[in-house]
Structure formats: C-alpha cells, structure tokens
Specification:
This protein is mostly helical. The protein has one domain: Growth Hormone, Chain: A (Up-down Bundle). Helices cover about 85% and strands about 0% of the residues. The radius of gyration is 21 Å and the shape is globular.
C-alpha cells in the first residue's frame, strides 16, 4: 500500500493529510457527472425529436428556468450552512427526476411536450449540480492547492462521465432510455453520501491543520467554519458580478465560451440528425461521442493538467481551448461533414473538461466565500444560458438569412479570437489578485462541512 501511495504521489502533487479529502472530492464529482451523463444523450435525442427549428425556444425556456431557480439557491446559501444546502440541492433534483419519470410513464401521448420540459429541466440541472460542486471545491482549496489538485479532482468527474455515458451508449436500446432516469437518481443520492464522507475526512485533516495554526484565533476560526452560514442577499451574486471588473471578465469568458458551444451544438444536431433517422441510434451515437470525449479527457487530467498549469500559468492555459476553437471553426467552415463535427466536438469538449474547466475554477479561489457560491452560480448558470439564448436565436436568424453551415462556422472564428484575448487578460488579473492576497486562501479542513 505504501508503494502504491508513493507512486500515486509521483503523478499527483498531494500531501499525505490531503489524500482522504482528495479521494472523497473525486468520488463526489464521479457521482455527480455519472448522473448527468446518463441523462445527456436523452436530452440530445428529445431536442432533435422536437425539431431542430424549435431548439431556440427550448433555450429560451432554459433561461427562464435559470431566472427562477438562481434566487432560490442564493436564498438557501444565505440561510443555511453548506452541510445543509448542498444535500438539499441534490435531493431537490432527485425529486424532479422522479416526477419526470412518472410523467413519461403516465402520459405517453404527451411525450413530445414532456420531452421539451425535460430538455429545459436537464439544461438547468446540469449547470446547477456541477456549479455547486465546484463552488464547494473553490471554497475549500487554496490557490496553490487548486493548481495542484483541481485537475485530478476533475479526473474523478471524467471517470463518472465515462461510467454514466456507458449506460446510454450500450443499454439505451436494450432497456429503453426512460429507465436511465432511475439509475441517474441513484447516482445523485450517492453524491450526497460522498459529501458526508468528505466531511468526515475533513475532520481528520482539520485536527492536523489546527495543530499547525500559529494562534489561538486561527484555531478558533477553523473550528467555527463547520456551521458557518455564508449570509448575504438573494441577489448579491448578480450585483457583485455586475460591479466587479474581475467577475465581469469571468462572465465575458463564460459568455463567449457558450456562444461557441451553442453554435457547435446546433451544427452537431443538424449533421447527426441528417445522418441518423432512428432515435435509439442517435442516442447511441451521442453516447459514444461522450465516451470518446471522456476517454481522451482522462489521460490529460491524470498526467498533464497540473503540469500544464504550472508550465503555462492560468492565462495561457485558459487560452488553449479558445485557440483550438479558432482552428476548429475554420476547419468546420471548410468541410461541414459528420467526421469533422465529431472530431472538433471531441477535441473541444475534452480540452474544456481536462484543462479549461479546472483552470477556470482557479479564478474563483481568490474571491470571498459569498462570491464563490452566489456570483459563481450566477455566472455558471444565468450567464451561461444567456450565451445559449443569444447564440441560439442568432443561429436561427443567420439560417433564415440563408447562411450555410459553413458560413455560420466562419462567423464563429473571430468570436473565438476575442475569447482567446479575454482568457489571457483574466490570467493576468488572477495573478495580481493572488499576489495582493485579496482574499486569504481557504484550507482543506473543517470548511469541508
């Protein structure tokens, strides 16, 4: 066992007293993404079945859903400690899944409309459950720990994504897509279990951290964080995001990322929908795309993400996926065929999950606890879906004007270039904030409540 840990620590730069918390952080992300990737191919299938021309309306519904849900989440953060609002959030979505399952079973004649509701729901669900997870992590790790460990924690999510996407890829035709909802519910409950075990692991780390504290005040501060309520207002995440240049920069990065992602999503829907007529076959294809993305991601996260961050720094690492997008959209514009869109989708999404997402989360480690939950959630959900909305209707408008798939891909090229410049600027701002010590870094101890 000692040899195995020694080998592990050659791959991951982790301290002995961080190991248990790191393991349960990975497990937590594993179960969250397993649940989502079980459901994702179903979303793609009902989106195509309802008509690609109706997708902008579904994105509008998703934006409305975000407007309704964000204040509820912000209120929970203001009122309850983390050990309460995190399980409540996940169990709220479990209950929703049960209702959706019963609706599909009870009213098959309304399948198209229930499917559209499901599309909107899962588009809200996937951003919230992942945003809550990363808020938890940025609230618990320092800037240095984030650079060292976020990539490997992301590996736990990738393994979960591989596990989750395997179910629809190989079982959708055999057991029927609807029964995948029940399996997703089980994975979400396991995520709640992992949060509780993470809390126990952090207690052991807390004892060591208290021993290292230099002052009685420092030791008292550590012990108080277990039940600390973050507080603040229902809309403070919105107001802080609009008043802080740093948070506005993160919002701009997210918005531009979403513009490109939505354009690529629509082009994937058009091309795959034209290539496969059967819904079960489309579900299997989407599942296999997810599987390919995650297999590529896992190798990068295990061996390269932390090293890339140390070698290039936050700014240049954030700029990698925008650079891939400049090339990829130009490639798709020149040749809008199935293998090109699949290749670009796999490469871009793998780069996002393995490199860009962990690096983007490092940006939040220099902020206050309230901003880590509320402003981050607002950016991760509302700003993300606002980008979807703008892109979806712009895409439809360009199609109405007679733009071809190639022409629309070419329009996305300069937007990806602007995204690249924003990434470099954010890296410089994060470095300044970290050097100034704008917010003392969290420690991986009793804060993992």
């Amino acid at each position: 066992m000692g040899r195995m840990f020694a080998l592990f620590k050659r791959v991951v730069d982790v301290r002995d007293d961080e190991l248990a918390a790191l393991f349960w952080s990975c497990a937590y992300f594993f179960f969250v993404l397993s649940s989502y990737y079980l459901l994702r191919p179903m979303r793609e299938t009902v989106g195509v079945a309802g008509g690609v021309e109706n997708l902008p309306w579904l994105f509008t519904g998703t934006l409305v859903g975000m407007v309704l849900v964000h204040p509820l989440f912000a209120g929970a953060v203001a009122r309850w400690p983390r050990r309460r609002f995190v399980p409540i959030t996940y169990r709220f979505f479990i209950f929703n899944l049960l209702l959706i399952y019963l609706a599909f079973r009870s009213w098959p004649e309304w399948e198209i409309w229930i499917g559209r509701g499901f599309f909107v729901w899962i588009s809200v669900f996937n951003l919230f459950v992942v945003s809550v997870f990363w808020s938890f992590m940025t609230d618990s790790y320092t800037v240095d720990q984030g650079k060292r460990l976020f990539g490997f924690i992301g590996l736990g999510g990738t393994l979960g994504a591989i596990c989750g996407s395997s179910f629809p890829a190989f079982l959708a035709v055999r057991i029927g897509p609807l029964n995948l909802l029940l399996i997703a519910m089980v994975f979400l409950e396991l995520a709640v279990f992992a949060v509780r075990r993470l809390s126990r692991a952090s207690d052991r780390f807390a004892a060591a951290e208290r021993g290292r504290s230099e002052t009685a005040a420092g030791r008292a501060r550590v012990s108080q964080l277990d039940d600390e309520v973050i507080g603040g207002g229902f809309l403070s995440g919105v107001s802080h995001s609009l008043s802080s240049p740093y948070l506005l920069g993160i919002a701009a990065y997210m918005f531009l990322f979403t513009l490109g992602s939505t354009v690529l999503y629509f082009q994937q829907a058009e091309i795959v929908g034209g290539a496969y007529a059967d819904s079960a076959a489309r579900t299997a294809v989407f599942g296999r795309i997810d599987l390919a993305v995650n297999v590529l991601t896992i190798v990068t996260q295990a061996f390269l993400t932390g090293r890339i961050l140390r070698w290039l720094g936050v700014g240049l690492t954030l700029a990698l996926v925008p650079a891939i997008s400049v090339v990829g959209f130009a490639w798709l514009g020149a040749s809008p065929v199935l293998w090109v869109v699949v290749g670009f989708m796999v490469l871009r999404r793998a780069g996002e999950y393995a490199v860009a997402r962990p690096t983007r989360e490092v940006l939040y480690t220099v902020l206050t606890r309230e901003d880590k939950y509320k402003a981050k959630n607002f950016i991760d959900t509302f700003v993300y879906r606002l980008g979807d909305q703008v892109s979806a209707w712009s895409y439809r408008g360009l199609m109405a004007l007679g733009f071809s798939l190639s022409a629309i891909a070419m329009v996305a090229v300069p937007l990806a270039g602007v995204w690249l410049l924003v990434a470099i600027g954010l890296g410089r701002a994060q470095r300044r904030k970290a050097a100034e010590g704008a917010v003392p870094g969290a420690v991986l101890e009793h804060r993992l409540t």
